[in-house]
């Protein structure tokens, strides 16, 4: 008799992710102790030895709740009991900008980066599910953030630092993060934990309506299911996958155009030739302008669509306006058939 269907589904998803990695390399599971990441850790502990590769587990103690250190210790014991070796926790300080969710995310990924480099792990597996993907798409839709935001979370990515460099020890490419469970729903991971005899921890932050994602999870998605019928999460995840393909293609075109439009900088940080820039499709042109602003030093987290649209008007609707101010103390200026980006 085979494993429970939910366990089999999670194991298959992890097996497929591991198959994309070189033989014998170390893989880590990032585990909070919740059902999604706990099921992921259990599947990794089962599959990695069968592929002859070492596998460990890491949990991050954000220090945001009383007893978080004890909770982290319990997660470490669970991961070690599954056979993940090494298993450990890292305590972080959440004090960044951009709100508590962004600050916690930045602190968490920095700790995961550093741990992966220290343990010489090639990849870190994350436990995001189809439900997380659907929530991400709805949040992006509410922000009006464009196709890239609506394309949701990628199945795999390499995280880059603020300077564009990968963490030391990975050849400058960044740590590889993989999300094997994006094709599975949250109910499946919870059933898998039950079948494996694992007791998930339910983070109280996941029911706190102060967080936008929690309101989407417990209010918006159920309301959509009630109004439109079942399958909304699956449809949103499917839409994200298709939009990601489109966004990837547009990004590639923008990279080529950006390289072709480079001009002498005339004392500025970045310069683009106006000839050819205005002729680009808007979806490509605005990507080029955003890249130029970021390369000039504008922080990606604060550079918004309204800024890019204002710069775009210097290209397509210029009536003598002198410049556009950008986050980070920068300015975009139209001068001498060029679009120039640099400090104020």
Give structural attributes.
344 residues, 49% helix, alpha/beta, elongated, 6-stranded mixed beta sheet, ATP-binding, Rossmann fold, 4-stranded antiparallel beta sheet, Uridine Diphospho-n-acetylenolpyruvylglucosamine Reductase, domain 3
Describe the model.
- The chain is an alpha/beta fold.
- The protein folds into 2 domains: 5-237, Rossmann fold, CATH 3.40.50; 262-343, 2-Layer Sandwich (Uridine Diphospho-n-acetylenolpyruvylglucosamine Reductase, domain 3).
- The protein is built from 11 helices and 10 strands.
- It has helices spanning 5-19, 35-50, 68-82, 100-118, 130-143, 147-150, 186-196, 212-228, 232-260, 282-296, 305-316; strands at residues 26-30, 55-61, 87-91, 121-125, 156-158, 176-178, 270-273, 323-326, 330-335, 338-343.
- The chain has a 6-stranded mixed sheet with strand order 3-2-1-4-6-5, sandwiched between helices. Strands 7-10-9-8 form a 4-stranded antiparallel sheet, with helices on one face.
- Helix 5 crosses helix 8 (212-228) and helix 9 packs across helix 10.
- It is elongated and about 75 Å long.
Write the layout of secondary structure elements.
Blueprint: H1 5-19, E1 26-30, H2 35-50, E2 55-61, H3 68-82, E3 87-91, H4 100-118, E4 121-125, H5 130-143, H6 147-150, E5 156-158, E6 176-178, H7 186-196, H8 212-228, H9 232-260, E7 270-273, H10 282-296, H11 305-316, E8 323-326, E9 330-335, E10 338-343
Parallel strand pairs: 1-2, 1-4, 2-3, 4-6
Antiparallel strand pairs: 5-6, 7-10, 8-9, 9-10
Helix pairs in contact: 1-2, 1-7, 2-7, 5-8, 5-9, 9-10, 10-11
């Amino acid at each position: 008799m085979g494993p429970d269907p939910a366990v089999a589904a999670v194991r298959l998803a992890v097996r497929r992710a591991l198959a994309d990695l070189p033989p014998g390399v170390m893989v880590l599971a990032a585990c909070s102790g919740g059902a999604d990441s706990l099921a992921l850790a259990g599947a990794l502990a089962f599959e990695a030895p069968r592929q002859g590769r070492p596998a460990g587990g890491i949990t991050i103690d954000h220090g945001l709740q009383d007893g978080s250190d004890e909770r982290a210790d319990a997660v470490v014991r669970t991961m070690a009991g599954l056979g993940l070796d090494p298993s450990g926790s890292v305590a972080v300080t959440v004090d960044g900008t951009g709100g508590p969710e962004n600050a916690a995310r930045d602190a968490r990924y920095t700790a995961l980066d550093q741990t992966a480099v220290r343990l010489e792990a090639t990849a870190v597996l994350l436990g995001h599910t189809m439900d997380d993907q659907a929530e991400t798409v709805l949040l992006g839709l509410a922000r009006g953030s464009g196709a890239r935001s609506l394309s949701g979370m990628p199945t795999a990515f390499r995280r880059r630092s603020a300077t564009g460099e990968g963490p030391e020890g990975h050849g400058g490419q960044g740590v590889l993060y993989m999300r094997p469970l994006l094709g599975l729903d949250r109910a499946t991971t919870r059933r898998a934990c039950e079948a494996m005899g694992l007791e998930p921890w339910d983070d109280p932050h996941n029911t706190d309506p102060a967080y936008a994602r929690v309101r989407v999870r417990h209010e918006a998605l159920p309301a959509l299911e009630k109004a439109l019928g079942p399958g909304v999460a699956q449809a949103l995840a499917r839409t994200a996958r298709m939009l990601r393909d489109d966004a990837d293609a547009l990004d590639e075109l923008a990279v080529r155009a950006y390289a072709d439009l480079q001009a002498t900088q005339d004392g500025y940080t970045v310069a683009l030739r106006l000839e050819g820039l205005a002729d680009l499709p808007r979806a490509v042109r605005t990507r080029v302008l955003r890249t130029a602003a970021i390369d000039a030093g504008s922080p990606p987290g604060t550079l918004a669509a309204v800024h890019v649209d204002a710069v775009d008007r210097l290209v397509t609707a210029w009536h003598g306006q002198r410049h556009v101010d950008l986050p980070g103390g920068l300015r975009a200026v139209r001068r001498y058939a060029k679009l120039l980006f640099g400090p104020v």
